[in-house]
């Protein structure tokens, strides 16, 4: 099998149609099954040395969680294929739903009503993940796909984990990760609530939350020390940055990004209910 950096003609039995993108250790292709002719997305990770084994393990973990989820707002994960040579695993492929869409960071919603609709779809998908016993743990604009009809798909379960997991390494995206992620505390549904709040803040304000994207000082990030010392500062409320943002929506975002998990909404279902109310209020005000 060829290097992941070039485009092979085939991966396993799948015919490669196009290269869609790549990450630090994976490549995403559009592929077609030769018998069924079904077109899918294929995430491929090659084992190049023993250090790369953790990336293979991550894909297997992603499949183990993703295969248990079934929601319209989450990209479907279909199958995991292990590639072998002389009985040794040389790589893994994860077969997923192919979505013709653009990430939220590449194309912002045209108005606040459309933004709320996107936020609501994401929140419903996350509520499903929590119901199944997991946390996404990396909600951010480029993990949200939106098609031409406004349909949302949450992608990338690479950092997803069971509720209550305490991770050995700091995992998350600066600007969106919750303080408990930076400090390696327990990951819970309220972690996703913070991630979602930070994503909503960026979408409407155009900036990441300052306290969750600090420069590093030595071997310890300022977020870690701020969490430990209890002096994290809240961002400026969105409606103070942009008066056109509905104050109820602004409050919802601020509730989500409270530094301490117990200060955030109790569950994603509550966030969904509030976003539905905000949507309805905004529609009524538009009609009048």
Please describe what this structure looks like:
It is a single chain. With 288 residues, the chain is α+β, with helices and mostly antiparallel strands. It folds into two domains: 10-96, Phosphorylase Kinase, domain 1 (2-Layer Sandwich); 102-287, Transferase(Phosphotransferase), domain 1 (Orthogonal Bundle), CATH 1.10.510. It is 34% helix and 20% strand. The chain has eight helices and 13 strands. A six-stranded antiparallel beta sheet has the order 1-2-3-4-6-5, with helices on one face. The model is unreliable at 213-220 (pLDDT under 50).
Bin the strand percentage.
15-25%
**Silhouette:** globular
What percent of residues adopt helix (DSSP H or I)?
25-40%
Considering the protein shown, what is the CATH homologous superfamily of the largest domain? Transferase(Phosphotransferase) domain 1
Total number of strands: 13
Going across the biggest sheet, name each strand in turn: 1-2-3-4-6-5
The number of distinct structural domains comes to 2
Mean pLDDT: 89
| CATH fold annotation of the largest domain | Transferase(Phosphotransferase), domain 1
Sequence stretches where pLDDT stays below 50 over 5 or more residues: 213-220
What is the SS-derived class?
alpha+beta
Most strands sheet: 6 strands, antiparallel
- DSSP helical segment count: 8
Oligomer state of the chains in this structure = single chain
Radius of gyration: 20 Å
The CATH class of the largest domain, by name, is Mainly Alpha
